[in-house]
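hiii, so i know i said id send this last week but things got crazy w the move. better late than never?? heres the sequnce for the chain we talked about at the cafe, plus the structure i predicted for it. fair warning i was half asleep when i ran it
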Amino acid sequence: MIQALIVDDEHLVRKGLRLLFPWQKYGVEIAGEAASGEKAMQFMREHPVQLLMTDITMPGMSGLELIRQAQHHDASIKAVILTCHQDFEYIQAALRMGAVDYIVKTQLEEMDLDQALARIVNAVRAEAPEPRAGGSQASLVKDVAERAGSVRWVMDDDGFESLLEAIRQLNPDAGQLGEMWQSAMDRLQLSFPMFDWQEVEAAAPADAYGFEQRLSKLRAGLQAWLRRSGYSEDIIQAIVKAVGRIAEQPVAHVKQSEVSQWVNLSKNYFSTSFRDIMRLTFSHFLQAVSVRAARELLVTTNYPVYWIAERCGFADQRYFSKLFKEQTGWLPSEYRQRHGK
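okay and structure toks below
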């Protein structure tokens, strides 16, 4: 029997998934449930799981981070994401991380559940293909680059040590170091737009030791910058956690009230502390993240500008174009012509 774990912060969703799918028919046993990513990881450390079905947006650890940690714990675990709507960016991000399928919760009644579960079970039971030469190393480089670009290690000592250990085990060459450094800097600059990035060396480190030293120096600089706000460590960590969630899910169209709940702060206190710690308002930060997401969609897809504007949270295309030009120097159509493949 395939052992499955259902992870969703809503009890009714977990109960519904248990009841709706014909698990026994396809040789699947629900080994357990969890209401958060943290509890899910605890369960998987104590019980073998082959199939992880997880919501994307949950308080605390996001579904994407849960998938990352679960596959680091056991690379054979197959993940299926649960989402409330057809969210292109969420789904693409999860599939890039190795998720085998996705389920739109609001469409369960319209789905062919037998067909969906058969497809998922086939993916779980399929033999992993032989990796191409260099494929495994490339995957590890991508994983470490994503972890280096995350904000978790900025205030989390254990997260930072784990990242350094991953770099040591990878032992990347000069080309891989350059790829990892550029990817990490792009994501961190988006997460902390008001930090003085001119003080950070742009050139990639020459070796893994230099990479570690550069990250350590950057971490110390970011911590000092954040602490100059005068807030307690707990509040700074809460704001950094919020920043990480937003940067990880740039087209989620989140509201300030939702984010404040994620980090267990009142809406008013969250607004004030975010502005003081990050040196810009929450709305301006959200705009910067959304424009960055739009830039990527303009370059990597052929979707029309109005579709991208709406997807990134802008109901008014003219306002989107104006803001986009203010932040990039080009109109969206001009940006696509200059940077598109």
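btw The first strand starts at residue 2 and ends at 7. thought thatd interest u
miss u guys!!
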